[in-house]
Design brief:
Elements: E1 4-7, E2 13-17, E3 28-30, H1 40-46, E4 51-56, E5 61-65, H2 71-87, E6 103-104, H3 109-129, E7 132-140, E8 143-150, H4 158-173, E9 179-182
Parallel strand pairs: 6-7, 8-9
Antiparallel strand pairs: 1-2, 2-5, 3-4, 4-5, 7-8
């Protein structure tokens, strides 16, 4: 099994591409080892000293390291763990977790549908290319609430991406949008 590795805009995060489906259309973001209970793969990665966050995407895994280790020391261990997991045919997720509830006024259903379509077609593919994900968490009173996951979570350029990229685009296409706020996990 050959696993490709890509850098991300977040220097503490690497994207690992095992050449096979990881979660298909779903994603899962684990900010702590305690939160990883439903994912045998995430549990195995958190067992490595220096793993600070694990994000599972459609066909990739992103791992964020702590400051206590270097990628030179951690990368081979992550590659081995991912390879052993898939070679053993272990499940990536053992049960479906519920997504966080969306905070939306039912009267804004048309606006929310426009926002979600723009996120799905224009934003999500770009952040997935960098090893992350963006999740819609709500819309009220002109404010869109989004959660950055994977490599995007904690990335030094995440707030600039939200404010200058996503907010400007949403305001252009959906005049009702006044601002974008980040929801922290």
């Amino acid at each position: 099994m050959f696993i490709e590795t890509e850098g991300t805009p977040n220097p503490a995060t690497l994207k690992f591409l095992p050449g096979r489906d990881v979660l298909g259309d779903a994603t899962a973001d684990f900010a702590t080892a305690e939160a990883a209970g439903r994912s045998p793969l995430a549990i195995a990665l958190f067992a490595l000293p220096g793993v600070g966050r694990v994000f599972l995407g459609g066909d990739f895994v992103t791992v964020t390291k702590t400051e206590a280790v270097t990628w030179q020391a951690l990368k081979p261990q992550v590659l081995t763990t991912i390879m052993e997991h898939f070679v053993a045919r272990r499940p990536v997720i053992v049960e479906d977790g519920r997504a966080a509830d969306e905070d939306v006024d039912p009267a804004d259903a048309d606006i929310v549908a426009q926002i979600k379509q723009l996120i799905d077609t224009r934003v999500r593919p770009a952040v997935a290319g960098d090893g992350g994900n963006i999740v819609f968490r709500g819309y009220r009173d002109g404010v869109v609430r989004l959660q950055m996951q994977g490599a995007c979570s904690g990335c030094p350029s995440a707030s600039a991406t939200l404010k200058h990229g996503i907010e400007n685009m949403l305001r252009h296409y959906v005049p009702e949008v006044q601002a974008v706020e980040q929801v922290l996990a």
